[in-house]
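Narrative progress, year one. The postdoctoral researcher (J.K.) led the effort to move from monomer predictions toward full complexes, under supervision of the PI. The following entry was the first complex the group processed end to end, covering 639 residues in total.
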Amino acid sequence: MIPSELKIDRNPDGALLLSLAGEWKLGSAIPSPDSALAGPAAGEKAQRLAFATDKLEGWDSGLLIFLAKLFAICRRDGVIVDQSGLPAGVRKLMELASPENQRTGITHGGERPPFLVRVADAAFAQVKGFKEVLAFIGEVTLAFFKMLRGKADFRRLDLIVTIQETGAQALPIVTLISLLVGMILAFVASIQLKMFGAQIYVADVVGIGMVRVMGAIMTGIIMSGRTGAAFAAQLGTMQVNEEIDALETLGLSPVEFLVLPRMLALMMMMPLLCVYSDLMGVLGGMIVGVGMLDIGVMEYVQESRSALNLTHFLVGLFHCFVFGVLVAIFGCLRGIQCERSASAVGYAATSAVVTGIVSIVVATAIITLSCQVLGI
Amino acid sequence: MSAPAEESRTMKEAVIEVKGLEMSYGSFVLMRDLNFTIGRGDIFIIMGGSGCGKSTLLKLLVGLKRPARGEILYDGVSYWEAEPEVQERLKRRFGILFQSGALWSSMTLAENVAMPLEQYTTLPPGQIRELVSFKLSLVGLGGFEEFYPSEISGGMKKRAGLARAMALDPDLLFFDEPSAGLDPISARLLDDLIIELSESLGTTVVVVTHELASIFAIGTNSVFLDPDVKTMTAAGDPKRLLKESPDPKVINFLTRGEGTRQR
């Protein structure tokens, strides 16, 4: 690379003449624009600036940013720049980048409001968010009753596809998690029960624990992460693509058309998955009981049967039914609330999972407390 | 980019040579037997009706998709047969403006433009900042450095995308439908910008478009893709094609379906 060179002369008419030579490219040692104007050779402050570039071998953005900075200084100091000595391409680009050619009139963000205003804004946003949730639940309920009367608009095919996605396709992960949770429960219980020689009661702990609540909670959390996030992402992307607006302009309610089939599917599939999860949990407990605690298979089954009754089973199913509704509602709500950008879709999915899991835990607490009070 | 604008462009050397190219999705062949040459400093238009494979051809030209058959040579080097380092070097020469700008939404405009510079150069941060500001002011967005893509209009996003595409002073610029979604005045300004950049920097430009006004305003060379026969049916300067092409489909396309030469 030929090094860049800058020679500063004075024209007979008093103008400063900058002669550029060599290659002016990024990465080479390009002189600073200040030295060009205030260098010792420049002497007294000039009123005009001219260029000679016949020895210029090559240039790229390196020369352009040098000139941009130089021109900015000249504008500030009122020095007139004569660009005629520059290559035509450079002149054109400098004109494109000149301040006169910049877009104006759009302001950015604005000032940051004071602390108290921000606190109030956040509080109002919470209230508004809560109202939106209530309104959405209301809309979904109305749509549900409309469906019971056979008047809701949605495609039966959507329902069937969603049933398959939320039901059969969720089986492998439900199997894995429930089996492991059953085994973990059995391990934890066995350590305590062994001290009393009461290993056989592992079957009771695992059976009641899984069937009454753990099976439902694990299924709920899996479905929140798997299906709730998927709903939010699907509807969020539809919002980004204006598909939801297109439905509304056709006079179709997005709640009926999109939310209802998803909620129905989850309401039907969650209890079924819960039963399956209970079974897998008991199986996990049995693997530990038979394999490590020397309990016989029939003995374990018999103990589990005597420990469980229909109430436990129905309480578990009720949990799961509620979780299904919660996961569907929050998944769809976050999707419909989604803004129109790629990052908003990610935020909607995250928010659906977080709200889904929090609501599952809160609902479990409420149901457990109610059962306690009612003596179920 | 060392080639100044004054350089004569009468004898154009080939920058991209496409030989016997076939493109397909799985077993479905989209286009076959594509043969054309893009010369240095050309503004090359890829034209054809909707769905004929223009954008796919662009993807092949920038190395995002592998051709089913045939080859694409850049200054005589085949992209897909080159070593990874050579591929990397070739990619550095490309600047691409996607249809909607494709700005990264979590970054400011300045960070978007700085990304390729930080990735591929060892310039100090101060110089990168200056360069980013200059590139943004080249496309008329000086002062918008700290804006996020969601805060600016569609046309401005395209301009910012162009600033990012030019960050590394590429000698090959690719545009996918640059004027789609822009009002006629913004579209015209973008066309002017493309011509000015090509002329002053000597950049070779490849444009996918079906905007007739743009095709005639900026194109110096072109290829016409016909989905019915699954190959190219015309090539050359679009203004000349309009006057001389014997193919009624090409004439129909270039006259918005009126089928008669009006120029």
